[in-house]
Design brief:
four-stranded antiparallel beta sheet; elongated; about 20% strand; binds calcium ion; 12 helices
């Protein structure tokens, strides 16, 4: 049991409870007329109407002071044994955020990817289940949604109801969003409790098609997802607008239903403003698309990460801290390290699930605005991504909604002054081997659209 409890003083008053300290030898009849909840020595916990608190000390010579009964609460670090290696969580202030909320289960997060190992020991309690089908009749579309026996989601690659992951990528992504936290097992997700919908469009070779993407987005939206993570994309700058339309339709459909799509920016180390990657680059056109670059353990843009001042919104952990990339769940009930913007994206998808869990009525544009206005500014990102920074989960959960639509860069001037031209300083030593795995997935997607 490694649960570490720290007590955190917060400045919330607890109802109308006040701590009264009596002067030594004071006549305890001074408390008459108040409801005393507890007493010890010369302290008393007393319920006092708010309007009577001020001046109370002056009124009674027996009172040394009257103080609000501020709340103390546990500030937990999860007991998952591999958490010690999950540097990305502390970088985004997840530990502090988890004091605010650990439960994203009100919000369904669809992972459109290679599938999800939904039997994984550290995921199975956090996977979405379509209970009508799980409890229904085999070979019957019990819920009438057009998909027979879709208990765990759907496999659009093989057109069957089993979106199990035969590659690993989707399971890794799913674990970042919502590996079960604080269960003495494996790792912890950004959300300790979650509902992850597995929607498979990438096969074991890591490729997929726009049609399956379009189908998958409709499936996710129609079956209750509020957030869609897409750690995939095109890798051809010359795709015609006509060929892009199915992808655009998918994004527009999600937008019309108020569903957020979080998308990886790509791993080519290039500028998406000049060489767009879709769906990430739809971020410029649609308020429901949030595109994500990768940072290393020092909060600097990863050397492999795509960027784009106008088309990439913020960064999140996806690179390296020393020799370690991002640890998460993997296919076959295992765990592994992977780097890439694919891995950064689900940090943000998890953050969106947190935000919507606490405020389900928020529109996608308000969610996006909150995320972008609460980032941790870094000099390596100021000229590279729209927000100028990387995810701060605590700030995103704590901040009030800013009303501005586009003024995400309001706090960048200070960082600019100190940052200068340090944009391309990350060396990328040692990253290429692990990245090759992700490249295989990202680069080969959507070959049908390459003309
Ligand atoms: Ca069905
Ligand atoms: Ca059925
Ligand atoms: Ca766990």
């Amino acid at each position: 049991m490694k649960l570490l409890i720290l007590l955190l003083l917060v400045s919330l008053s607890f109802g109308a409870e006040f701590i009264v300290k009596l002067r030594p030898g004071a006549d305890s009849r001074a408390l008459e007329g108040y409801r005393v909840i507890k007493r010890f020595k010369n302290y008393a916990l007393v319920e006092i109407p708010q309007d009577r608190v001020s001046g109370l000390v002056a009124l009674s010579s027996s009172f040394e002071y009257v103080a609000r009964n501020v709340r103390l609460r546990a500030f937990a670090i999860p007991n998952d044994p591999m958490y010690v290696d999950q540097w990305g969580m502390s970088l985004v202030n997840a530990e502090l955020a988890w004091d605010v909320n650990v439960d994203c289960s009100p919000i369904i997060v669809a992972v459109i990817d290679t599938g999800v190992d939904y039997w994984h020991e550290d995921l199975r309690d956090n996977v979405w289940r379509n209970e009508i089908e799980c409890m229904g009749s085999p070979n019957v579309d019990d819920d009438g949604n057009g998909f027979v026996d879709d208990c765990y989601g759907w496999d659009f690659v093989n057109s069957d109801p089993d979106p199990i992951d035969d590659q690993g990528h989707g399971t890794h992504v799913a674990g970042i969003v919502g590996a079960v936290g604080n269960n003495s097992t494996g790792v912890a997700g950004v959300c300790w409790k979650a509902r992850i919908m597995a929607v498979k469009i990438l096969g074991s070779n890591g490729t997929g098609s726009a049609y399956d993407f379009l189908s998958a987005v409709h499936y996710a939206v129609d079956n209750g997802a509020r957030v869609i993570n897409t750690s995939l994309g095109t890798d051809d700058c010359n795709i015609s607008e006509a060929s892009l339309q199915p992808l655009r339709d998918a994004v527009e459909y999600a937008n019309s239903k108020g569903i957020v799509i979080v998308a990886a920016a790509g791993n080519s180390g290039s500028d998406n403003d000049t060489c767009p990657v879709y769906p990430a680059s739809f971020s410029k056109d649609y308020p429901n698309v949030i595109s994500v670059a990768s940072v290393d353990g020092d909060g600097k843009l990863s050397s492999f990460s795509n960027y784009g001042l106008n088309t990439v919104d913020l960064a999140a952990p996806g690179g390296f801290s020393g020799s370690k990339s991002i640890l998460s769940t993997y296919a076959g009930n295992s765990y592994t390290y992977i780097a890439g913007t694919s891995i950064a994206s689900p940090f943000v998808a998890g953050a969106v699930a947190h935000i919507l869990s606490s405020d389900p009525a928020l529109t996608p544009s308000l969610v996006k605005n909150r995320l972008l206005s609460s980032v941790q500014i870094d000099s390596s990102l100021v000229d590279k991504v729209r927000s100028g920074g990387y995810l701060d989960l605590l700030a995103a959960l704590s901040s009030t909604i800013s009303s501005g639509g586009s003024a995400f860069r309001g706090s960048t001037s200070e960082a600019s002054a100190s940052g200068g031209g340090g944009c391309n300083s990350v060396g990328g030593i040692g990253s290429s081997i692990v990245l090759a795995v992700i490249f295989l997935i990202l680069r080969r997607l959507l070959p049908k659209l390459s003309q």
